[in-house]
Amino acid sequence: MLSPMQFTRDLRLDINLIRSHEAGALVIGDQTFTSNLILSPSQIMPDWAAASTEFLTMEQLEDALAMKPGILILGTGAVQTFPDPALMASVMGLGIGLEVMTTAAACRTYNILASENRPVVAALIL
Description:
Blueprint (H helix, E strand, L loop, with lengths): L4 E2 L11 E5 L2 E4 L2 E3 L3 E3 L4 E3 L11 H9 L4 E5 L9 H9 L3 E5 L1 H13 L4 E5 L2
Parallel strand pairs: 7-8, 7-9
Antiparallel strand pairs: 1-2, 2-3, 3-4, 5-6, 5-9
């Protein structure tokens, strides 16, 4: 079994940063999460209902979009898969940048952007 990948030394304690990621689990602060979630620097919404990008809907992204991100990072699990192009166009039509990547890459990217005080939200499929 692989050991968890450490992402940050938690230099910023005032925002939600991902401390580590392994298949099926994330550590944010001192909490471990084992279900899909939506994350911003100030909020954690566990138990996000999305199961895959294949059937992802705008309704499933409502909570993430309500956080008013400038950038929405979609972590798609172990393999990068893209949602329907119409969904991607709808998100970008709201003036929100959408980045789609593996969940591990999404975790790293989220931490960098959150540490820079960028308006970022991550929607992560574990």
